[in-house]
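Q: Okay, next protein. This is [heparan sulfate]-glucosamine N-sulfotransferase from Geodia barretti. I've checked the sequence twice, so it should be correct. Can you predict the 3D structure?
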Amino acid sequence: MCPRQATLAPPQLCSLMGLTSEKTTTKTNQERNSRVVKSREKSRHFSEKAQPPRVLLLYGTDGYRPSHEIKTFLESHRIPHRTTSLVKGQLLLGEKTNSSSYSQHLGEISILIIVSHFQASLVEPYLELCRARHLSLVWAVLPYPHSQTPKPHFSRLHASSVAPDAIVGMTLSPRYPFFYGRPGATGGGIPHGKNWTTFSLETSGDSHVTNPGSHVTNSGPLPVGDLNAANAWSNMGDGEPGTKNGTNGYRVLVEVRVKTGETDFTDVPVVLEDMGGRDGVRKIVMGAPVRFWLSHLMLLESVHQLSDGRLVREGRERMVMVDIDDIFLAPEGRRMRVDDVQAVLRAQAKLRQMVPGFTFNAGFVGGYYNSGALMEEKLGNQELVRNAEQLWWFDHTYKHHQPHSMSPRQLRTSMELNRQFAKDHGIPALVHHYAVSPHHSGVYPVHPPLYDSWRQIWNVSVTSTEEYPDLRPDHMRRGFKHRGISVLPRQTCRLFTHTFLYSHFPGGRNQLVSLAAGGEVFLTLLRTPVSIFMTHTPNYCCDRLALTLFPALFKFTSRWTQLQLSYPGPLAMADRYFSLYPEDTSPLWTSPCSNKRHREILPAWFNCSQLPQLLILGPQKSGTTALHTFLSLHPQVQTNRQSELHYEEVQFFSDDTLYQRGIQWYMEQFPYPPSPSVPPTNSSLPSSPPPPPTLLFEKSATYFVHPQAPQRAKAVLPQAQLVVILADPSHRAYSWYQHQRAHSDPTAVRFSFSEVIRASPSSPPHLSSLSHHCLTPGHYHQHISHWLEYYDHSQLLLIDGDELVERPAAVMDQLLEFLRLPFHPFQNILQYDSRKGFYCVVESNRRKKCLGKSKGRSYPPMTDEDQQWLSSYYAPHNAQLKELLTRLGRTPPRWLI
Ligand SMILES: Nc1ncnc2c1ncn2[C@@H]1O[C@H](COP(=O)(O)OS(=O)(=O)O)[C@@H](OP(=O)(O)O)[C@H]1O
């Protein structure tokens, strides 16, 4: 155990004191806790935590990688979900006796997705659970390992393994009521990869699983016929939900054509729906490799079908925009010539047949117009301008300078020059209210002068970036709104400034086409309702790679899916994005300091050491002002400037209006810390030691209970140390009530403390609201747990509120140790003042300076009845707190013992 003075200290303090046995246990706890926090945090960061989870993804030991793929699918479509192992899921779902614990763990689930081999023992236990809980099932069947023996049947279904090179074609059922897939779509050219699993109906005997090396399995006794005759569909049946007789109760979604001999082929189902006629569980069984695009399409289809469209938000509409950035700017030999420009216009006309309204979006840097050395390239520039009306145009600064490195005046000048250029050359650039910044600079991390100049000079209301919140993983890129401008996420299409010949593209032309034909670019389009692809001039000269990629993409999409492609322009795209995802409107600012790419596009004034390293979180009326005042006395510590709104508190993470102002505003609340002096390099003089680093901190007592503060703080200050003061919650509530009265809160003035704490939800709204705000901050367990979902508990120091009142110098020693700051003689600086009834600061003139009259107020003591009432009110919350502290290896505060 930690010694007395280390009450509520984090474990590393105990270990500093040489308590090694504690250290061992703590370390394990700490590691475990940190792992849990990290994984939770990952899934919660930018996740849809406001919605109840609806899909439960279950994986076995062999299914970890494929399940990761499915998790990416769920995340990219923002389908609310949880993930767990097959073993754990069975335990959780099986908790029939304790259904509240079931829903507490899992939320409301409607679909299970199982990733496993075709093994009845893995799936059968779930059938019972699905029946009992009215769940549907999607089963992604993994290919059999070579050595495995045939497996038992499942719903009279046999599985067979087929080597990928035996599959020569694939068809989507012409009869299945697809929402996303195109009925009857057919084609060959299935890429090699993992084995596939095909299905057949049992008539007798065991299922067959063939050696994948032999190309094709014995696909069971089901006769399959000509692909075009769609025999597989009719042989498997067109079962309606609940059908028991007449048909087999299956509907085939996809079949593949398998080579069985030199000239023989057979058509077998690879994705089918079991309508639940036999076991009452509606399920979709998929045998295509999980990484293959068909599986993504079928997963989307399955979740849509099984949830009657409730779990997929995007519908079928897909808006697509293709930017050509730097249209006049490229190295010699990589700019468009006249025939390239004409090819672009011809391609555009053709693409409009597949994507209504399709128009290339040209980003221009006027300062480079006609700057190429080759005459053909100058003519190419002129051809672009001659056809300006046929394209859409957007500002890309005049000289391609990065906005973050320009002063507001330079920025404005650059934009004005580009605007004048557009005017002089008849370029209709003001109409679309869209602009893009070179290298994403200034868009994210946000550089407010860029936003202001865009609005002022170009009337921009939409832009795009790949950088929010981060470049990777790309399916997690998001949009946000800032200073009246909608920032949309951009997608990657694998064409860069250096890809202008097929031979420069890894894998050549075939690889480029396969990106579009089911590869990464197709999946992006499938996942993203609003896709903005960035290309560059070199992609349209030379081998014109972009003019291969996009037609291939749209053709493939129209062939296999019913996605409705369109290009309605940036404004309509922004409207659609934010009406689909209103939760993205307000950004979650992330720390630019811990991200290499973001650091490279930070304005010069941005100083990562001007952000605080310590947050005193609260709660209100726990002694936070005293702690703030005392800590500010340390010579190596500085706090924020006084705010005109909240006095000594910044409240950035808990005040939505302030939070919107961005990190720059937050930084400006802190003094610029002294930079260490750099000794002259060639000097023979002994160098003076650098000044000690300054620790910046802020205290905002509103952070403790604010629902978004932990996530916001973690995203900006991942390494911050946190302090929470645990005062007796009953006293805290009484102090808070007195504070409200002192500030003439009409409800607090009108109602007594007894009435306030005893108010119920049926009391007048202003009374029950006051009661809620008075009592709930004292639910310490709940608020601390929330913070620990984001921060590791070693970053958190808990201070006993009574100790702070009675032995403030000891508390300060404890705090300095936690912060690894040098000793400061608080024992001499803090002295008890009998008039104030609290410790005060002894100033240099030896006079005591106490906290203001609003801290340490005089008011009558709480009545015994109220005290008792509160003790029993807080008893369960305090018990949970005690449990938590024990789990974390902390000593409880005195009032809790
Ligand atoms: N040294 C010292 N001087 C004065 N007051 C002290 C001190 N140490 C702790 N306290 C207790 O701090 C209570 C005020 O808490 P906060 O500063 O957190 O209040 S606030 O939320 O910032 O308004 C305040 O509550 P009240 O007594 O109700 O005024 C005090 O109980």
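A: Here is a summary of the prediction. The chain has three domains: 51-306, 322-584, 610-672+692-742+772-896. The CA atoms of residues 500 and 858 lie 78 Å apart.
Q: Noted. On to the next one.
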